[in-house]
Amino acid sequence: MAASSASASSPPRTTTFTLDGVGKVYPGVVAVSDVTLSGYAGEVLAICGANGAGKSTLTKLLAGQERPTSGRVIVDGYDGEITTPSAALDAGVLLMHQEPVIVDTFTVQENVWLTGLSSAGRRRPWQRVGGRDRADRTRAALGVVGMRDVDLGMPAGRLGPGPRQMVALSRSQVNEHRVLLLDETTASTTEEHFKDVETLVRKEREAGATVVFVSHRMPEVFALADRIAVMRNGALVDVVDRADTTPDEIMTLMIGQAVMALEPPEPVAASAAPVLLEVGDVSSGSASGISFSVREGEIVGVYGLVGSGRSSLARSISGHQHRDTGTVRVRGREVNPRSPRAALRQGIAYLSEDRRREGFVKDFDNAANLTLSTLGAFSTGGVMHTRRERRRVAQLVSDYGIKGGAEQLTSSLSGGNQQKVCIAKALESEPDVLVLDEPTKGIDVGARLNIYQIVRSLSERRKAVVVVTSEAEEALALCNRVIVLRDGVIAGEFVSKTSTTDDLTRTALGGEVQ
After folding, report:
1. Is residue 477 part of a domain?
2. Which residue has the higher pLDDT, 375 or 11?
3. The pTM of the whole model exceeds 0.90
4. Total domain count for the chain?
5. Where does the record place the ABC transporter domain (predicted)?
6. Are strands 481-486 and 489-495 parallel, antiparallel or unpaired?
């Protein structure tokens, strides 16, 4: 076990770290203001807050990735200042990022042992342990996060978003630490992977480590946390015992007002609108023989677990993945896009579940990303009409409530604002069909509701919308009806207004609906 070997019976409330009046100011921005907070051995401390609340900055201060403007970061038993990542590691503080730090050209095994590479000298970290023992320890570490059977010699670049995060989390099992910081590490994973995270956190708690769990997902927070610290606008609003509060109370503390739940939309009557999208017997990747249709102004959900074929289906419809068999029709006309650009020309736009790698160009500002799919509307003979482009960008920023001006890098925005940029860019081409793959992955509750409202508005614009999601609650909140996939085929179909999350999850797992 990589964490401290202190037993679960250690004296209660043994302090492992203290943030003493910590503040962090950037030019023109107070990111964290006068926060005093302690962590204790053998506990899970959740830190919650909306985007921009300061929770990730607080985590970086504790991990030595940012130097506090005021106050001190104190780790019990460590005499030095925590002002650098190496100091934090020496003190026993291990940070796991929202975006997993993975070297694609390294093997899975090499990535497990990646921490400490910069200070390893000529000998890389994975070379410090003998061959057979190294493989056994690597396999054991991966086993804690449900990845025991992965090929250790496979290049990590072949892993999907969820498995990449699991490999990154497995590093906690081969690096000594007393404090484990999980900064939105479940944002790029699905519900199934959360069980593996739960196993990891339980082992850490039993070993006497302090787990700081930064998340906006209330079910996860309430499944794991002993205490919950809530931040808003850089300040610590309250710290409460999980047993003494509710998700609604925490969300109210996070955003300063009560959160209104969305009622499932009414079903679209067959006689009310023409069919815009027809998918007939489509097979691609893990999806096999899928058929369904979407009417004008209808939002159809595609729900399923990992391996169900949901993303393969979405990507094959939109030209991002080869379609083996079947047909796709838009307004009755058969389309067979062999690329995303071709799909846009034929009326289909797609938003990837991995927006940082496929949703926008990280080195482009908002203006460049927002007009990326419609450059022809702002150019003549290859010459851009910058003034016309900027006027349109200003309108889009206003219409979609995107924070940050035209010249701000999209990569510097919060997850919610990045997703607004991606949606606005996709809709600029005026598609008939919009396919959204995990549209709220890594987005907090306040921004999530905003994204929901934008998606709901597409119904009023008479678009056909397909929402691919691994969250049953999201499927029912957003969609008129939901198709459930299991093992690559349709296992059931539900009207959201008259269905429950239990109906969807039971069907996805192969059980009987009660």
Report:
1. yes
2. 375
3. no
4. 3
5. 17-258, 270-512
6. antiparallel
Task: Specify the pLDDT at position 5.
Answer: 40
Range among 84-88, 383-387, 509-513 rated most confident: 84-88
| Mean pLDDT, rounded, of the chain | 85
Is the domain of 85 the same as that of 198?
Answer: yes
Amino acid at residue number 393: V
Q: Is residue 208 part of a domain?
A: yes
pLDDT value of position 279: 95
pLDDT, position 187: 65
Q: How confident is the model at residue 191 (pLDDT cuts 50, 70, 90)?
A: low
Q: Could you tell me which of 50, 64, 85 has the C-alpha nearest to residue 19? A: 64
* 9 has a pLDDT exceeding 60: no
Residue 112 within any structural domain of the chain: no
Residue 22, SS3 per DSSP: strand
Q: What are the beta bridge partners of residue 213? A: 46, 182
* CA 491/CA 489 separation, integer angstroms: 6
Structure tokens at 287: 């999806």
As a whole number of angstroms, the distance between CA 107 and CA 95 comes to: 21
- Is pLDDT above 60 for 481? yes
Report the C-alpha gap between 480 and 496 in whole angstroms: 6
**Same structural domain, 71 and 209:** yes
Q: Virtual CA dihedral for 484, 195, 474, 494, nearest 10 degrees?
A: 20
Which residues form the domain of 326?
260-347+431-514
How far apart, in Å, are the Cα atoms of 253 and each of 120, 167, 225, 236? 44, 33, 17, 10
Pairing type for strands 348-351 and 433-437 reads parallel
Both 418 and 464 in one domain: the answer is: no
184 and 265 both lie in a single domain: no
Mean of pLDDT values over 297-304:
94
Note whether residue 122 is domain-resident: no
Query: Can you give the pLDDT at residue 192?
Result: 65
Residue 363 has phi, psi (to 5 degrees) of -90, 5
Residue 298 and residue 310 in one domain: yes
DSSP letter at 359? Answer: I
Q: Are 464 and 294 in contact (CB under 8 A)?
A: yes
Distance of CA 154 to the CA centre of its chain: 24
Angle, helices 445-460 vs 415-427, to 10°: value is: 10
Residue 26 sits at the vertex; the CA angle it makes with 22 and 28, to the nearest 5 degrees, is 120
Q: pLDDT at position 10, please?
A: 43
Buried b / exposed e across 353-368, counting CB within 10 Å, b at 16+?
bbbbeebbeeebbbbb
Residue 8 has pLDDT above 50, yes or no: no
pLDDT bin (cut points 50, 70, 90) of residue 6 is very low
Q: pLDDT category, 261, cuts 50, 70, 90? A: low
Identify the CATH number of the domain in which residue 450 sits. Answer: 3.40.50.300
- Give the residue from 429, 446, 480 where a domain finishes: 429
